[in-house]
Amino acid sequence: MDDTLFQLKFTAKQLEKLAKKAEKDSKTEQAKVKKALQQKNVECARVYAENAIRKKNEGLNWLRMASRVDAVASKVQTAVTMKGVTKNMAQVTKALDKALGSMDLQKVSAVMDKFEQQVQNLDVHTSVMEDSMSSATTLTTPQEQVDSLIVQIAEENGLEVMDQLNQLPEGASAMGESSTRSQEDQLSRRLAALRN
C-alpha cells in the first residue's frame, strides 16, 4: 500500500512538471504573438495565438490530471492512516478492557485519554484528506480566445494594429471596436472632468 502511495505521489509531481512546461511554452508563444504584431503580421500572430491557447489548455489538462492523481493518493493515504488508527484503537480497547477489569480509576482515565487522543488524530487526518481533494472540468478553445489574446497583447504593448485587426473575423474585430469605444469613453469622461 505504501509503494502504491509513493507511485501516485511521484506521478502527480511528474504531471505538475508537465503542466508548468506547457504554461512556459504558452508564454513563449505569446511572446511570438507580440513580435508578429510588431511586424504587422496578423496571420502569423493568429497561428502563434492558437499555439499559445492550445499549450495553455494542455497545461490545464495536465494540472487537472495531477489533481485527480493527487486525490487518489489522498484516498490511499487515508486508507493507510485509517489502518494504523484502527490498529491503535484496537490496542486501546484491549487496554480499556483490562483497566475496567481491575477497576483502577487512574488506569481507566489514562486509557480513556489515550482513546480520545486517537479519535482526535483520526478526525484531523480525515479533515486534511477531505480538504485536499478537488474536482475540475475540461475546457474547449473557442476562436474568440485566440482573437481576445491578440487584442490583449496588442493593447498591453501599445501596438497600433487596428487596421490589421479589421482583417480578423467578426468576433475579434468586435472586441477591438469595443476596446476602442471604451477608450474613447474614458477619454471623453476625463475631458469632461477637466472642463469642470
TrEMBL record:
Annotated keywords: Coiled coil
Family: Belongs to the SNF7 family.
Name of the protein described by the UniProt record: Charged multivesicular body protein 1a
A GO CC term attached to the entry: lysosomal membrane
GO molecular-function terms, A-Z: protein domain specific binding; protein homodimerization activity
Region (Disordered): 172-196
GO biological process, one term: late endosome to lysosome transport
Pfam families, per database record: Snf7
Coiled coil: 5-39
Name of the gene: CHMP1A
Top-level taxon in the UniProt lineage: Eukaryota
Gene3D superfamilies, per database record: 6.10.140.1230
